[in-house]
Write a structure and sequence with these properties.
- The chain is mostly beta strands.
- It is about 5% helix and about 15% strand.
- It is built from two helices and 18 strands.
- The longest helix has 14 residues.
- About 40% of the residues are buried.
Length: about 375
């Protein structure tokens, strides 16, 4: 079992600490988006969901159990990965809960490819060559919760996704536009991963995310030049790393007050307007490393729950005594346990010790060397 793949699968289900609980924030690295899905960890998640009750109905046993040629079928899991398949195989057992088709040469999903698989929980189509999905292909999958379509050649989000869907991963495709109403009616959706698609801000049409109650959204490695508007208010994690964002304006974060994690690393941010961070008052973790900032962003002392700030690899040349901590003792609910400032032109011996009076310990501060 690969730890990286497990992190990827658990990214959308790991609970975040409640803002009222002042406990040390456990820093978790962002999951690496591997080209493979760890089926074993996915099976564990499936069994946990079944134990908690996920709408699965045990059907009558098949008279003659079938298994597609070359595949492995066991415990309602059908594994057909890396078989050189060009189409979804026939004879998939109707009681299948997890169907693994990753690493093949499938170019098209046809209308009846999943006919009769009404109890399917997860469908893995990662790392194929899919360019076309029939509009009715997913209609039989009325209980599917997880759909993995990353590393294909899709130019649009598939139509008629099951209303039961909780998690969609469509990373590394060729999607340029998310049309208005694309996710309408998908009220159970919690997580969308759609990074490494050539999406510009203009490609996110007004109403594209209407009706969603997402917790996790990643649009990294795209072509965004600003923080998108009209994303779901419910977001607790938003990752926009490796785009072309140049500034954070006053109202860019206005509607994202429930965010706990905000990833803006590897952009081209030079300016963060004073007051723009006021709206993300629940934030625990802020990634602004590898940008073009010349100073510590204003507003950090007022963020009572903020515990991790990445500012390394910018152009920050000085740090003020009140850049991180509030002037009044006791107004910050939690101490910082991670501030990174290395690879900045800071004369660290000029930084006053009182600057980090609200930090949990010396090891939480990373200055390093500027090269």
């Amino acid at each position: 079992m690969h730890p990286i793949s497990i992190l990827l699968l658990l990214a959308c289900v790991t609970p975040l600490p409640a803002p009222s609980v002042a406990v040390p924030f456990q820093q978790r690295g962002l999951p690496v988006l591997s080209k493979t899905i760890d089926v074993q960890s996915l099976m564990m998640m499936m069994m946990n969901d079944e134990a908690e009750g996920s709408g699965y109905e045990e059907g009558p046993p098949a008279e003659q159990p079938t298994c597609p040629f070359g595949c492995q079928c066991n415990l309602r899991v059908v594994q057909c990965s890396d078989l050189g398949l060009h189409y979804v195989p026939y004879d998939i057992p109707p009681d299948t809960r997890l169907l693994d088709l990753q690493g093949n040469y499938i170019t098209e999903i046809r209308e009846n490819d999943f006919k009769g698989l009404r109890n399917l929980y997860a469908l893995v189509l990662v790392n194929n060559m899919i360019t076309k999905i029939h509009p009715r292909a997913f209609l039989p999958l009325e209980r599917m919760q997880k759909l993995y379509l990353s590393h294909n050649r899709l130019t649009a989000v598939p139509k008629n996704l099951p209303v039961s869907l909780v998690e969609l991963r469509i990373h590394d495709n060729q999607i340029k536009k998310v049309a208005s109403g694309t996710f309408y009616g998908l009220t159970n959706m919690n997580c969308i991963e759609m990074g490494r698609n050539p999406i510009k801000n203009s490609g996110l049409e007004p109403g594209a995310f209407d009706g969603l109650h997402l917790s996790f959204l990643r649009i990294s490695e795209a072509k965004l030049t600003g923080i998108p508007k009209d994303l779901p208010y419910s977001l607790t994690e938003l990752h926009l790393d490796q785009n072309q964002i140049q500034a954070i304006e006053l109202e860019d974060l206005l509607q994202y007050g429930q965010l706990f994690r905000l990833g803006l690393s590897y952009n081209k941010i030079r300016h963060i307007e004073d007051g723009s961070l006021y709206y993300v008052h629940s934030l625990r973790e802020l990634h602004l490393d590898n940008n073009l900032l010349s100073r510590v962003p204003a507003g950090l002392p007022e963020m009572k729950h903020l515990q991790v700030v990445y500012l390394h690899s910018n152009n920050i040349s000085s740090v003020g005594v009140n850049d991180f901590c509030p002037r009044t003792f006791g107004t910050k609910k939690t101490f910082y346990n991670g501030i990174s400032l290395f690879n900045n032109p800071i004369q660290y011996w000029e930084v006053q010790p009182a600057t980090f009076r609200c930090v949990s310990g010396r090891n939480a501060i990373q200055f390093g060397n500027y090269k």
